[in-house]
Every structure is written in structure tokens, then in C-alpha cells.
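Forwarding these from the shared drive since the link keeps breaking.
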Amino acid sequence: MVIAIDGKWIWDSWYAKDGDTYHGFFLQASTSLGDPDLRHFNVSQGHATSKDLVNWTHLGTMFGPQKNGPAWDDSTTWTGSVLQGPDGLWHLFYTGTTLAEKSMYQRIGHATSSDLHSWVRVGDGLCLDLTGPNADTYEKDHMIGHWHDRAMRDPWVMKDSDSDGWLMYFTARAPGIPEANAGGAVGFATSPDLYSWTLRPPVFTGGMGQLEVPQVFEHAGRWYCLFCTAGSQWSAHYRATNPQSPVTGNHYLMADHPRGPWRMAPGPFLDGAEPCRRYAARIVNGPDGLVILGFADGGKDKFGGYVMDPEPVVAGEDGLLQVVPAAKTVD
């Protein structure tokens, strides 16, 4: 195991590089809860550093829910991303929920740091919600009985390759789709300065009930959007067009441009198993090329709760990705 802490479950993680040092950020909760399903609502964010993505130095908790009275993110602070602005300041974009809504409505928050560990919310932290002219392109209300939450989470923020602005991708759902597993969407927003954001229509809809933890990156002239999902959330169309039995794990979209159009990668599911082996993965440019990092799942009864050893990822001439399993790994 790569990122592991005695007495804590670790799950979703995200990474930033500062010079020759990788910074890993991750969700964490105490194993004293007993039931791993309870971790989601007893969460904070941890921080560790590494030179090689294998050996990590833990720096402790770096962020968590607001505790000073009612707030939009006083219940949970979930998965996000970290990047550096043009002035050298670091930016954390994260998922927040509030106790007042029983954590059912997700929104996106923003905090900044000069050292990648001590974070200060920008204002009250709220960065983006499903409001404004394009809100109707999303399932903006909790459709009780149709899905278990109002999805707006897992922000991935990156530089716009076509301008001086910034792009944000996030987990969402599209409205008016009768099949619950056909409504998963990758949401989209833009900003000129990392502070003021405009909600745009989703860049992709369909295939899965959820496309969680999106990560957009370029490799060898092609654009990829990694995501994770459960086998039980494959749409009828994807089940019909993919010859595999449904698995849980990580797959990806492909495009020629970061704004799309995006398409589901054909062929085998990238990195899946049933029960799930690795979830909420990220593809990171390591010292020796691309590697995949994600947490050991195994299901509720055998939940791993640590980030697994990185495994190499290669792209074929057709651009399709493949994970090269480490020999004889013990998870």
C-alpha cells in the first residue's frame, strides 16, 4: 500500500506537483466508526508528500467541514483538485454539503494556500452551484426516488489551453432522462481568473448513472476524461454495446479537444473488477511515465481503505489506454 494511515480509512485522492515533490490529498475517516459506509459523513482531508509516488511522508489533516456555526459546507468536504494559479498561489476546489439539507445537495467550494497545507476559504468558500441561465441543463433538484442525491461534486479544475482562463469539470446528472443509469453527466464551468465561475451545459451525458471523480488530461495529442462508476450503474445501452459483464472501477472518455465532443472509450472497461479492486483513480505523470493511483475498495465487508501502489498506464497507437498490472502485487 502506498498512502495508508493506521486507524484511518483513506479513499478518494488527488495530486499536485510542486518542483520535484508530489503532494497527495485524500479523504480520510477514523476506523473507530466500525462501518466503512459511515466514513462519508465523518470526513476530513489529509495531506502527504512524495518524490516517487510510492514512498509518502504524512503531514496530517489539512482541511475539513466548517465548524463555526451553520454553513453551506458544515457537514462534509469531499473530493476535489488542487492547482497553482499564475501568481503562485495554490487553489483547492472541493465538494461541500450542509447539515441543514442532510448532506443531500452538493456544491463546489474554493480555498487558497501558499504552502499547500494551510488552506483559507475564499469568502464563505462557496464557489459554484447549479443556478443561473444554464441550470436547467442539469438535474438541479434532488429527484427523490430517482437518485440518492443532488449531484454536483468532484471538481477537476485546469488551465484552458485556448485562453488565459480556466475550465472546471464535475460529477453531475442531466434532467428528464427516464432511465436513472442513463443520466450521469460530466458538468462544466469556465472562469477567467479562478474566482468567478460561469456554469455551462454538461460536456457529456449518458453511459452511466454516475461518472464520478472526473479527471481531464492530455497525452500524446489526445484528451482523456478518467472517471469511476459502479457495475450496477451501467446504462442499458452501455451493457448492450460492451461485451463484458458489468464491473466497478475506472474508465474514460476521449476527445480531440478539452471542450469536447467527448465519447465513451470503446473496447474493454479500463480498470474494473467485481467486487471492485480500485476506485476513484487518478492518472498521474510519474517519474517514469503515466501511472494510475486509486484506493483499494473490495466492498463493504473487505474494504481496503488505502491508496494502492501505482501501476503503469500506456496508450496504444489508437489512443486507447491500458493498465499494466504490477506482477504479484498483494493488496
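-- next protein --
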Amino acid sequence: MNNIKPWVSALRLRTLPLSVSGIIVGSCLAYYNGFFDVLIFVFALLATISLQILSNLANDYGDGIKGTDNENRIGPERAIQSGKISPKQMYTAIKINIFIVVFIVFLLILSAFGTHHLLYSLLFFVLGLICVYAAIKYTVGESAYGYRALGDIMVFLFFGLLSVLGTYFLFTKQLDHVLLLPACAIGLLSTGVLNLNNMRDIESDTASHKITMAVKLGLKRAKLYHSFLIISALILSLLFGILYYRSPINFVFIVVYIPLIKHLTVVLKTTEARLLDPQLKLLALSTFALSVLLGLGYIFQI
């Protein structure tokens, strides 16, 4: 049991609900438009979860061997940092997880396109490989983009646009401009989670020469940037509800605005970076809740 606990911790299970938010939105809107397949939905969830786990393991490995995760870090102690998992063990786990991701992506593509739509299959297989590369290169290697303030744009693209639009396409074999607003909203909130994490770690990251957007901006301006991310997401999701109104239940997601606005108020008032840590869980779960309620609001009509 003692050998399992460090690995469970390294998986960072609390990050998984956020990672599937875009999958839920894309799937629900596909269902509303008359396209849905349980197998595609399940494999899309499994592929996303396995990619998030791969990213978590790779982040632990990359930050661990570079010394970024050290005693000055405010968040939860990481596996390599604690010494409970060696870099070699983590590297092996990463390789195993890559094979798992590729296998699940293959099953996802097969369930979505079968033996037809060869070009679509190739496209999504390439996208899957790009996702694997992006999950690893966030912190691993000398050219890790997470150390060059590029993590924010990557999260927006992968957790927002690609997650929502890609999932919808798997079901429908087509794209719809309707999806852009919720895709951007989920992407902005997901980017907010990363920015909040980077604001919390701003001092240790600066000392370790890890250049994040928060480090580049400084804590004060990073808070303004955070406000832009959250408020923009609220506006875009509300605009989506207005433009594509079908029934009052479409607006059920607005209840999530309450914790999000409260979250933003707390962030703006907080003067010490370490006090931001409790807000990570709130923002991540609020994003997940918004995705679920937004999606269900179009499946269940009054």
C-alpha cells in the first residue's frame, strides 16, 4: 500500500475533472444535434484522462530533475521531489503511459471513423501524437515550452478549442461555428487554472528560472490577466446562452457564476501568493460544473 500512495499522488487525480470539461461540452452539443455514440464518448474520456495523467507524470519528471520542485514550492509535494519515486521509475511510467494513450486514441479513431474517412483518421491520429508531444514537452527537455511562458496558449488550444471542437467532430464529422463560444469559454477558464497555479508558484518559479506568464507579468499584473480570463469566459458563455437560446434551462450554467465571481474577488484581494492555493480546486471544479450544466442545459429542454 505504501508503494501505491506515491503513484496515486503523482497521478494528480484532482486535475482530471478539469481535463474532461471540453469533452463533456462537445459531446452534449453533439447529442443535442442528434449525433451521439456511447463508445466514442467513453474512448474520448479515456483518451483525455490518459493524456492528462501523462502530462502530470511528465511535469513531475521535468520539474523534478530540473530542481524546480523544491522545498520553496508552496503546492503539494511532488513524487520525485519527495524521493518516493525515482526519476528512472517516473521515466518508465511515462513510456508505459504513452503506449496506453496511443492505444486508446487508436480505439477512439476506430470507433469514430471505422474503416471509412481515412483522411479524418490520419488527421486525428496526428493530433493525438501532437497531444502526447505537448503533454511531455511542457516541462521536459531544454526547450520545454512551460519554461518559456507558452503554457497558457497551449492550454487554451488543447483544453478549449481542440477538446470541444475535436470531440464534436468525432461524433458529427463536421464543425459548427456555434461551438466557438463555449470552446473559448472552457479554454479561458482552463488557462485561468494554469495562471492561478503559476501565481501561487511565482516566487519558487522565479528562483528556478522557470518563466511563466505570471513570472513575466509579476503578481499584480498577473491578477489583472486572471481577471481578463475569468470575466471573458463568463461573457462568452453568457453570449452563447443568449444567441443559441432554446429554453430557460439553457441558462442553468449561470449558477456557477456565483463561485467564479467569489473566486475572482478572493484572488484580487489576496496579497500573498501562497494563499492562492485553495482557490485552485474551486476554479477547476467550477469549470467542470459549468461544462456539465451548459451541456445538460441543451440536452434537457423544458
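Residues 4-299 form one domain. The CA atoms of residues 6 and 84 lie 6 Å apart.

- D.
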